[in-house]
Amino acid sequence: MLVESAPPVWFPTMDGIHQESRAHRRPCDTAVVIDSELRALGQRLVAGDEGALEEMYRRWSPLVYSVALRSLPSPTDAEDVTQAVFVSAWHSRTSFDPEAGNPPAWLMGITRRRVADFHRGKARQPPTLAFALENHDVTSPDPTVDAINELTVADELNCLGEPAGAIMRLAFYSDLTHQQISERLGIPLGTVKSHIRRSLLKMRDRLEMTHGAL
Amino acid sequence: MAHCDPNVLALAALGEPIADAAERSHLAGCVECSDELESLATTVRVARTGQADLVLPPDTVWQGVQATLASEPAPLPIPLPLNRKRSRWLAAVSVAAGLLVIAGSVAIGRTLAQGPTPTTVAVATLTTLPGAPNNASGSASLQQRGSSRTIEVDTVGLADPQGFYEVWLMSPDDSGLVSLGTMSGGQTRASFPVPDGLPLAIYSNVDISDEPIDGNPAHSAVSLLRGQFTV
Q1: Is the Cβ–Cβ distance between B210 and B222 less than 8 Å?
Q2: A172: domain CATH number?
Q3: Is the terminal CB of chain B with fewer CB neighbours within 10 Å at N or C?
Q4: Residue B141 φ then ψ, to 5°
Q5: B119-228 belongs to CATH 3.40.50.2300
Q6: What is the pLDDT of residue A33?
Q7: Residue B121 — very low, low, confident or very high, per pLDDT cuts 50/70/90?
Q8: Count of domains in chain A?
Q9: Worst-scoring range by mean pLDDT, A8-17, A67-76, A127-136?
């Protein structure tokens, strides 16, 4: 099958344009398009429907909280930041664009900023030499971004449904080939292959959208 | 040959060998297919590194969100055609939340501004446009205090206007423009109320223009600093 795509832009930073252009350049894949259910949820939030915030909390507070747990010193800090993320999401809801934005990606952007606020708050205290050295290395990778990546993929994996979820877990964590997965689950080879392709594309696109929102 | 079979690339990203020699040699020379493979392989690496479990936050976190929002005035009206019904939970928790707030909920007070304290809900870094002084810069922050919104503007290096500087909110595509007010040469800080109901999702850019004293209320088209609000 011919793939009519330009080279994908991998993990664009601070540039939402790439998500859009990608959607146009990859007509064969539908995963990049904001699905109608997420768009409706975003529209309700922007319009001031508190039920939409509640639904976002129900769906993505584990993602926000898990990222916060990985990025902050204590569970209490993670709880405070998680609360602040959803309060911020409500206050800044008019800045969300339901047509182009992905709600969990947007929440990850807010989470990263609230985590940074937390660390800056600590930094306002008289810095120790060790702290100053640690925080002046601008080239050091941001551990919050690693946590966001890994937990975003975990969240998408949970959303795949079955049998896609089971297939991907066997492929990722049990290192089974698609043939072995087909035998293990009694699912035709072609079905396994297409589940693997579609699921990987969904995860890849979700990661890219998240990076566009950080 | 045609590009690689997408199924084959997905399996290759997981580490399975590519059986077909023609596909292997195509992949070696095709930027599109190798980029596609690389992006999928990166996704696989992230998945395998993480193998992370998501953790549910304790119920007190959502209760804290509800209590904080319930202690604030009603949501701002947003000019969109929809059925704005009073929320179920906002109404339901307001009494309980009031009690919580009166009792002095330490967790909430510690992290979130309430009541009369303004909260910064968005910030914009203002950068120079052609024609601006080289050393000019600025920032804007959107403050929310209850239901009223204020934009605070700080500037550096703007000291020599034709007449005065004017601060505007504009849509990124220039289709809409709202004047917030003026600043004098050398004035480095000003605060402007945001008209109720003005959708900042649309008017998300802050613009500072150089205006002559000519009695013409329109934008002079000489913009010096501009930036977009982000959360």
Answers
A1: yes
A2: 1.10.1740.10
A3: N
A4: -130, 140
A5: no
A6: 56
A7: confident
A8: 1
A9: A8-17
Q: Which candidate in A91, A146, A199 is best for mutational testing of the B interface (most B CBs within 10 A)?
A: A91
Enumerate the residues of chain A whose CB falls inside 8 A of the CB of residue B107: 79-80, 83
User: What is the helix (H) or strand (E) element at residue B103, kind and residue range?
Assistant: none
Amino acid residing at A151: L
Q: Which residues of A touch B58 (CB under 8 A)?
A: 79
Q: How far is B50 from chain A (nearest CA, A)?
A: 5
Residue whose token pair is 């050295």? A133
For the ranges B75-89, B154-168, B179-193, B197-211, which has the lowest average pLDDT?
Answer: B75-89
Residue A11 pLDDT exceeds 60: no
Examine residue A6 and state whether it is found in any structural domain, yes or no. no
How many residues belong to chain B? 231
Domain span including residue A122? 17-134+142-213
Query: Where exactly are the structural domains of chain B?
Result: 6-50, 59-111, 119-228
A1 within some domain: no
> Using the beta-carbon criterion (under 8 Å), do A94 and B78 form an inter-chain contact?
yes
Identity of residue B83: N
Q: Is residue A200 in some structural domain?
A: yes
CA distance A33 to A199: 15
Q: So what's the pLDDT on residue B116?
A: 56
Amino acid present at A28: C
- Beta carbon pairs, A and B, within 8 Å: 197
- The pairing of strands B148-156 and B189-193 is antiparallel
Q: Is the CB of residue B108 less than 8 Å from the CB of residue B204?
A: no
Q: What is the DSSP letter of B47?
A: H
Cβ of B56 and A207 within 8 Å?
no
Whether residue A158 is contained in a domain is answered as yes
Query: How many other CB atoms sit within 10 Å of the CB of residue B174?
Result: 10
Given B35, B199, B231, which is nearest A8 (Cβ)? B35
Cβ distance A114 to A88 under 8 Å? Answer: yes
What are the angstrom distances between the C-alpha of A6 and each of A2, A3, B11, B29?
12, 9, 21, 15
Can you read off the two tokens belonging to residue B134? Answer: 């080289």
Roughly how many angstroms between the first and final C-alpha of chain B, as a whole number?
48
What count of residues does chain A have?
214
Q: Are B156 and B199 in contact (CB under 8 A)?
A: no
Which residue matches tokens 């990076």? A211
In the predicted structure, residue B112 carries a pLDDT above the cut 60: no
Handedness of CA B221, B192, A87, B89 (dihedral sign): negative
Chain A contact for B82 (CB, 8 A cutoff):
yes
Percent of chain B clearing pLDDT 70 (strictly above):
80
